[in-house]
Amino acid sequence: MAEETYPINIWINEERLEKLQAAGLASMTKEVLAGLKVIAVPNTEAQRDKILKLFPVAKYDAATTRSIENMPRQIKDKIFDLVVKNKSLNVMDEFIKSVEK
Amino acid sequence: MEMIGHGGKEIIERVLAKDAALKRVAEMKAAKVKTLDVRLQMATEILDIAYGFFSPLEGFMTKADVEAVCNNMTLADGKTVWSIPIVYDISSADLEKSGIKQYDEVLLTYTGNPFAIFDITDIFTLDTKEVAMKVYGTTEDKHPGVKRTYQYQDKFLGGKITLLNPPKINEPFTRFWLTPKQMRAKFQEKGWEMIINHQTRNVPHTGHEWLMKGAFLGAYGSMMVDKPRGGVLVNAIIGSKRPGDYIDEAIILCQEAQGKHGYFREDTFLTTCSLWDMRYAGPREAIFHACLRTNLGCTHHMFGRDHAGVGTYYDPYDAHRIFNKVPQGALRIKPIFNLDWWFCPVCDEVTYSGLCGHKDKKASFSGTLIRSIIQDGVKPPRRIFRPEVFDMIMTCAEKYGFGNAFVTEDYLKNRQPVFTIEPLK
Fold first, then answer.
1. DSSP labels for B176-222?
2. Is B119 in the same domain as B212?
């Protein structure tokens, strides 16, 4: 059985796509659901629990998608900016530390 | 027209005509009867009792009813299936201050206006932890139904309710809130013999649309197709909201948009709402929904994956299995069980997990996921989400949501209430 990644799905709107293209990261996206572009930022179980605690409005969709949803857009923008800055999807430790500060 | 509801009992509206109500209020005031002002949850449930949504309940439950609900999933008669306690709570201090005693007749007010008569036949306490465990299967207050149970005051009043003052249902809900009697009249007008209920508290995506279409096709199978003999009833649950939920106006108007824009024929589709604060009781809430929709006159009820569940408290199909525990004939509505609908990139369509053989390629989507897409400022493709529904969300955000389609503190504080109780005159 594949390891759970508890992703935060960052859906790619035009503004985000421009940033990705400028950073040469457009290939980081994957296409799902009839052509939607998304970046799935993985979390460990511990990171998932921290995120749900830090952002009570967020919801872990345990029943269907097994992803962390309902994160406020501006928070996702910060995670997205870290992905672009680090050119990596493994940004959650850095992000959580920045929020906890 | 047949008015038989859940439990085989006739649906009787416990509502006084205006002249009689005015007379009763004057008499009660002259007799200086005790009064209690009720909060929104109680006001909502009083309406549900009075109009027969909760038939055969005629009032708030007595201790015997609550115990039977918890222990046997029936009312105190031991026969009528009922799964969720419907209780009126009050603090010991308020009870003492009011001087209310067993067998008192109490005048209930809402927002200060005369609302209903409460004939109190029982005053009791409950072990809320025990209630939580038996109804919700957990005592964790993270569960919203358990949290609500723990928030109840320490005393409970049971007894019959009679409505004095009908609600004014505010826009845009006016045309969607139909009482069980009105609902049945509507079905008759449409010539429907078969009514499939779709329970929702969501804006519809195409997974929901296909869920409804699949249920319609399945249930309609053996009926003559010479004229519309049945349809899908969307009965949206309108009730307490949490930040991040879709606003109520978006839910109801987007559901209606599916019919208005032809994704369903208008003669086989109807959008309505019921007022209820979801308890997220999973399997027990599924039974409750079956009882409620029986009272509305529905013949079938759809139950999907993780029906009325929350978090990981219930197995996704617990809400299906619980129907095996209900004695045959105890429910007058036929459950239609659904597995997942997902998007298959190979079939290139939204398809049913019970049919599609590309499970390893599937892209599951949920209302929560779609919400996340919209929150990110992305318009989902029409195969996933109908553009007219998306446009309606945006309209509702501007018109009702203070610029946001999702519940915010601003919305909770400043929204127009779904109903108001005006002075009785």
1. TB--HHHHHHHHHHHT-SEEEEEEESS---HHHHHHHHHHHHHHHTT
2. no
Q: What is the pLDDT of residues A13-45, one digit of tens each?
A: 888 999 999 999 989 999 888 889 999 999 999
* Matching residue, tokens 């949850």: B41
Residues of A in contact with B363 (CB under 8 A): 32-33
Judge if B258 and B341 occupy the same domain: yes
Complex-level ipTM beyond the 0.90 threshold: no
Residue numbers of the domain that contains B86: 6-166
By DSSP bridging, strand A68-69 and strand A59-60 are: antiparallel
Q: What is the token pair recorded at B50?
A: 């009075």
Residue B173 lies in a domain: no
The values of phi and psi at residue B126, to 5°, are -135, 150
Q: What is the pLDDT of residues B125-151, one digit of tens each?
A: 999 999 999 999 999 999 999 999 999
Q: In terms of domains, do B204 and B135 share one?
A: no
The structural domain count of chain B equals 2
d(CA B150, CA B259): 41
Same domain for B50 and B143?
yes
> Given an 8 Å threshold on Cβ–Cβ distance, is A57 in contact with B244?
yes
Whether B34 contacts B99, CB under 8 Å: yes
Low-confidence winner among A60-69, B115-124, B374-383, B400-409 (lowest mean pLDDT): A60-69
Residues B282, B197 share a domain: yes
Q: Domain end: B105, B140, B166, which one?
A: B166
Contact A33 B306 (CB under 8 A): no
- What's the CA angle centered on B139, arms B136 and B144, to 5 degrees? 60
Nearest CA distance, A15 vs chain B (angstrom): 10
Q: What whole-number distance in Å separates Cα of residue B163 and Cα of residue B333?
A: 28
